[in-house]
Amino acid sequence: MSDASRIALSQYLTPQGAARMREELRELMQVERPRIVEIVSWAAGNGDRSENGDYLYGKRRLREIDRRARFLSKRLEHALIVDPASQTTRDRVFFGARVAYADEDDVRHDVTIVGCDEADLTRREISLVSPVARALMRGRVGDEVSLLTPNGTVTLEILEIAYPH
Questions:
Q1: CA 92 to CA 75: how far, in whole Å?
Q2: For the whole prediction, is pTM greater than 0.90?
Q3: Is the per-residue pLDDT at 155 higher than 70?
Q4: Rounded Cα gap, residues 83 and 139, in angstroms
């Protein structure tokens, strides 16, 4: 995969992922940042800033908030929001698909293929550029696909493909 196509793929977001990012940005800028600014202002009024833990921690936290806010803003600005519900070819694995597959030990795995910035294994969401997603892409139910792992090649069988309605 070329760097240009990897960059383009890294801009994909589902509508739900974009909404979560917008909510995080709103929370940071309208709730958390004003609270930390208030703490830093209070701490700055207490005198010697070089040994003031509230002041030093607050300034560090403000930098972290600002860095995350810049990241989220830039990602949202350049995002390609793709709604998986509009997928017309529903018998193949593409972005936004919920896929059930079995590994060589017949262990079933259910994953949803989402954008790089919204992947979350606790929700069984994997990045579109992850090795598993790349192996599953364009597959159909019943297909066996190869996944290259550090321990060698593993065969995965696609059991189900579903898209949101």
A1: 28
A2: no
A3: yes
A4: 19
